[in-house]
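Below sits my pick:
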Amino acid sequence: MAGSVPVRWVAPLLYGAVLAGGLYHAAADLDDGPGPPLWRTAGFGAALAALFALEETVRRRPAARLPVMLARAALIGAVVLLDASGLSQVLIVLLPFTAYFAFGAATALALAALCPAGLLTAYMVGPPGWYRDVDRVNDLLMLLVGLVLALAMAAVAVGEQRARHALQEYADRVAELSAAAERNRLARDLHDSLGHHLTAMSVQLEMASEFRTRDPEAAREAVDEARRSVTLALADVRQSVRVLRGQASRPALAADLAALAREGDARPRITVEVSGPEDGYGTAELTTLYRAAQEAVTNARRHARASRVTVALRLADEAARLVVADDGRGFVPDAADAGYGLLGMRERVQLVAGTVHIDSSPGAGTRLTVTVPRGGTG
């Protein structure tokens, strides 16, 4: 069966047992079979050596299943014919056993049915009255018991290998999804932190360039603000590194929102109002709320040309509600959903079981509402 291999130790163990029994039978001079005992014993040993070599070759370099099965059957038949002790009949059970792994249960069951049928045929063409011969009846019964045990062992081994393969596939899938989730998280962090500060730096440097000759003082202030944005960007990079190392600290949301309002130049004017305690809200929830506010303020500065932005956060017992509103030029929310900023915001909020609602239209400003349930995850 695909992905299944026989239990490695079964065949060599049986070959060794049969070899030891046959050699003892010859050494004790119990050999009363036809032909010269020395040559028959040598052929018996050579056939078993060929079986050992076949198993080792297949183990090292898997080959076509049907030729291997035919070669094994031929060699086992030769051993049975050359073994005067009769112990080698136990090797017959290896044929359906190995067929179970190579061709499946149906083929193995068919072979298992042929084995006693072949033995019965040999008994029937021999001397009459075989069914009264205790040794022959015992041989047939032992063969049947061995076939049942061999098929049961093969079924258990195949089931275990299938389960192990399925578990490995599941582990690989989990690793793949974890890697994808981590990539998405890093993409959101880069956009929300570095993207925000780089946008502010771009605006400030453009102002410095415009006012360089007309208002040197304003240009200098813009350059100072750009330097401050660089400092904040570096701080965010260090924070991201701490997160990757598992050393992230719990955010202080009220202080972070207040600092967000102080960033940049005087326009737009940003007011922040926070009510309710942060206790009970985890790091994931607090970070999500801050990133949502940061994205909304960045969009108001960069795209909306707003003159006023209000950030209102209410931390209640059941959920937190963030509302960011501006008086900018607005947009069509459905058309902007493909942007990385809004996409990352929605992903963040969904990860903490929250909701995002955007109310905006051209010329009417924008109102962003984010609701995050109190989860207490950190």
